[in-house]
Fold:
Amino acid sequence: MKSILFFFLLVSTFSFSQKKKPVEKIDSIAYYNNLRDVNVKANKYKDALHYTQKAIQYSKINHNTDALINENFSLGKLYYDVKKYDDALKYFNNCLSLSKTITPNSLQATAYYYLGMCFMQKRSYTNAKYNFDQAESLYNTLEIIDHADLINLQRGIIYKSEKNYDLASTLFNQIIVKPDSPSILDSKSEALYQIGTIEMAQNRNNLALTYFNKALALNSKSKNLEQKSAILLALSTVYEKMLDRNSAYSYLKQHTNLKESISIIDNEKLGVDDYENFKESERLKEIKQINEEAKQQEKASKFSKLISILAIALISILSLLSLSLYKNNIIRTQSNKLLEEKNKELIIAKEKVEKASNARSEFLSTVSHELRTPLNAINGITHLLLEENPKKSQMQYLESLQYSGNYLTKFINDILEINKIDSSKIQIEHINFNLKQLVENIQSSLKELAVENDNSFNFNIDTEIPNYLIGDPTKLSQILMNLINNALKFTHDGEVTVTTKLVSVRDKKAFVYFEVKDNGIGIPEDKFESVFDSFSQGSIDINRKYGGTGLGLTIVRKLVRLLGGKINLESKVNEGSTFSFELPFKISKRIQDTDKKETAINTIAFVNKKILVVEDNKINQMITKKMLNNKGIECEIIDNGEDAIEACKTNQYDLILMDVHLPGINGTIATQEIRKFDTKTPVIALTAISLNENREMLLSYGMNDVITKPFVPEDFYIAIAKYI
Structure:
């Protein structure tokens, strides 16, 4: 037995001495990868290429297939970044060739994508299309959706090269209508640029100019210099075609300067001499490596007989040990199966919860959306009846009906607001505004409610707060209006105080503290969390006595979090409540004129104007026509998109009111078709806007403005006056 143990120890020692070196090599792979990343950040691509080649050599020595796949991909990506597309093709193909024996993964899909991009640069569109198809197939199998827009963008460019402009435009428009986010900015800019080139190719120069300017505006948010250079050249070309030679020369000069800058940057990454020297040094290293491998092979053959003998002995000993390991393996297998079953149960439970949450959001969104159309009819008819001098005995009923309609409208808007926040479809604005003016406007709008409940209503505004800030005044107003409205509603014969105070200024940001304090009924401590839940008001008695939807504080907490703050609550029953939060704002020197809204209505300008109303709902047709006729406007009603297009071809209108949801083709497509032959007539969208719609998406189809149903009559007339 002692001799066997000694023999086993001898074999183990020998094996360890043989394996020690490869472990060191594996560590070297990580070391060279780190050096590569450091040099890429420092823009030293020659050194980055060198260290990646070193990592490939160590991967080969250790027979580490996974590392070899990754390093070949990394080397291909480096060559792609320095625009050496033939070399990039070689290493991406090496990566895929080595990956044939392993389970499909995202690296393979990405390698196919970059192969397609290399062929796009070489104008080999057939090969590019094949590789994009392979990439998309793998992404779909792996359920990865992040690259769908990138692939569709390249497909659109291929269709454009084949002069299949309709298919290309469809793919580009799918990208353009998506909400702005850092991950899609480049794709949206490129899609706008590509549509511009299509319009320019068809001599629609004004449309092309519009798309190029939109592309340039989006490009300014990223650092894609190549894209910017192409857009500037396109702008120069389109101005040349429009005979605006000054603008053409200006953009051409910008393009030339930028192209020189890009060339300098590319040379800094990897100059021509650096590249040739690197290729030659790598060739010599490869020859040296082959010679070393031959020597190692010769040395290894001398040990082969000894290793074979030791291996046989080792197998014999391991056979004895396998009996004891067999039982342990059975126990481990049973444990793994149990864990797998539990894991499956957890996954199923998680999927059920996600489905239930999605179903709830979709249901609430659908219900709130479907209620808007009949609610618009209720509000509109009430407005018309109040304008027709009703009897005194009828006024109470009509005013109650108007109040109920406004209450229901607010309730539906609150539901849609919460769904937008929960589904991450809400967008935060960053515009200039005057905080002091905003607070004063809120005070003026709520004075009547304060008087109603005999409350003292005070505002303390810190004079140290900068005059102009950059942020989202709409959402800030929503937060303050909800908090102050609650304070005034739950306080009678008391005092409500609103305080805004500058906490600090650092990194060109002002940190402002907001506080809404009352001495009303207060909130029990055990209800501090539940009052922020949807449809919660503390108790049924409070709901019956004071009314309300129970959604205000839910929206407040969600919006405060979105803006970078946290809502705090202090309260005692019958002593009052204090809600407070702190938000950061960038400091601005002055407010932009574009932030000011025109509210005056010139009704004289309405007389004898002709408006086309495209609306399929009979009641809404009647209400809209009556409201327009009351202002002296001629009105023509059409209930579908197809007839609306034909009417616009044969008639001249001062304005078009276009419902979005129509039988047949919808309002957005109808507007697109009208814009092909009429780019001047203003088009305003009428829509019961849903969770999946937004203003920017509708405007991208050629509409000038959006009126949301149910609309306030004054806002309706203001929007019309703006364009007539």
Summary: The first strand starts at residue 431 and ends at 433. Confidence is low (pLDDT under 50) at residues 1-26, 593-599. The longest helix spans residues 272-387.
